[in-house]
Amino acid sequence: MALKLKLHTKPEVPLEADCICPDRMQSLSTTEIKELVVFHGNHQVPLKDFFECDGNFDGEIIIEGDASDWVGPEMFGGSITIKGNAGHMVGSGYRGSTIGMQGGEIIVHGNVKNETGHVMRRGLIVVGGNAGDFTGVNMVAGTIIVLGK
Question: In the structure, what pLDDT confidence band is assigned to residue 1 with cuts at 50, 70 and 90?
Fold first, then answer.
């Protein structure tokens, strides 16, 4: 059974949950994953405060709905599927970084906003809908496919 995270409490401000990433979760138990730290505003809280967590990690992340900004920043491998829309900076480098996504794949069924694949080095990003401005800006290698609607 795959690891399933389901939002049970809607945050009042966006969560910064960069701990939800294959290379950080692959060697952790479900109990340890529940205790990973996310930022809710300027407060550090455990992942379990917002998400139910069941199953075992298998290296793939599937988001059943929309995602916000910074999905898969600087990722090295694995697979992220978003069955809705995504925000800005999908597969990009963090602000000031010269290296973005370095491997793996991100599949977005809907639209993405600006700077998808910024400073991307390797990997694949597929967008089923439309992409915002500056898609692939400063991209060195890799593939971005925008199907549009």
Answer: low
Which pairs from 38-47 meet CB under 8 Å and 24+ separation? 39/15, 40/11, 40/12, 40/13, 40/15, 41/12, 41/13, 47/5, 47/17, 47/19, 47/20
Positive/negative CA dihedral, 51, 59, 28, 103: negative
Q: pTM for this structure?
A: 0.79
Encoded tokens for 50: 């917002």
Look at residue 136 and tell me whether its pLDDT is greater than 90.
yes
Q: Which residue has the tokens 């298998």?
A: 58
Q: Which two tokens stand for residue 143?
A: 């593939």
Query: Quick one: how far is CA 18 from the chain centroid?
Result: 8
Tokens of 87: 């925000």
CA distances to 32, 35, 101, 138 from 29, rounded to whole Å, are 5, 10, 26, 38
Residue type, 84: G
| Angstrom distances, CA of residue 133 to CA of 52, 117, 118, 124, 142 | 35, 11, 11, 18, 18
Give the span between the Cα atoms of 6 and 45, in whole angstroms: 16
